[in-house]
């Protein structure tokens, strides 16, 4: 029973920190803000974390572990029948949006508040590497700058999470339809 209460307290601190870091920024958030938002004491904070920096680093680590497999989804395209590639990409985008939308504060902290951009760079490079591989296989157009495409894709995903998912204005599936249509088909009618 005590273990569950401890895990619940740690989770409250973690969620409060993610929300405050997302809204106020890492540097403007104090430990006293975090524990007040979590409804706990500073002593409770120090049972689980040594510092604000430690909780921030743990957030980034947890986020990276969960997200990194999505950025590698392009590897699977080579094993898919050509007529199913678009459906696979659309489903992967929907899964990414669902994952990021589950904890939008952590998403914002990890992708925007992280000043060294290490995680963002890792994700973009994985997307670009998968696209380069798919260029060699004849799946992706060779004239596409894969680094630029990776940055563009991640930027679009980041923005639509904040603009549509966090507000509940559109579902992840509706957004996945639009993002995959834009990235896979472009905006011009084919003549």
Jot down its keywords.
73% helix, 191 residues, mainly alpha
- Class by SSE composition: mainly alpha
Shape: elongated
Order of SSEs, N→C?
HHHHHHHHH
Largest sheet: none
Radius of gyration: 19 Å
Distance between the termini: 67 Å
**Percent in strands:** under 5%
What does the average pLDDT come to? 85
Helix content: over 70%
Poorly predicted segments: none
Number of strands: 0
By DSSP (H or I, 4+ residues per run), the number of helices equals 9
Give a verbal description of the structure.
This protein is mostly helical and 191 residues long. The protein contains nine helices and no strands. The longest helix has 23 residues. It is elongated, with a radius of gyration of 19 Å. The chain starts with a helix and ends in a 6-residue tail after the last helix.
What is the compact description of this entry?
By secondary structure, this protein is mainly alpha-helical.
What's the SSE blueprint?
Layout: H1 2-24, H2 31-38, H3 42-48, H4 52-71, H5 85-102, H6 104-113, H7 118-136, H8 146-165, H9 172-185
């Amino acid at each position: 029973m005590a273990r569950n209460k401890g895990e619940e307290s740690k989770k409250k601190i973690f969620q409060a920190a993610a929300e405050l870091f997302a809204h106020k920024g890492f540097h403007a958030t104090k430990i006293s803000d975090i524990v007040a938002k979590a409804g706990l004491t500073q002593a409770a904070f120090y049972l689980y974390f040594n510092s604000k920096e430690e909780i921030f680093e743990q957030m980034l680590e947890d986020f990276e572990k969960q997200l990194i497999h999505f950025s590698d989804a392009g590897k699977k395209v080579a094993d898919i029948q050509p007529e199913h590639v678009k459906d696979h990409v659309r489903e992967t985008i929907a899964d990414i949006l669902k994952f990021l939308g589950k904890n939008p504060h952590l998403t914002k902290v990890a992708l925007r508040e992280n000043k060294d951009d290490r995680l963002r760079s890792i994700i973009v490079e994985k997307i670009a590497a998968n696209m380069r591989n798919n260029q060699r296989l004849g799946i992706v157009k060779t004239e596409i700058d894969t680094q630029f495409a990776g940055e563009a894709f991640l930027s679009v995903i980041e923005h639509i999470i904040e603009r549509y998912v966090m507000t509940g204005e559109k579902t992840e599936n509706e957004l996945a339809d639009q993002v995959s249509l834009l990235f896979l088909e472009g905006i011009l009618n084919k003549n």
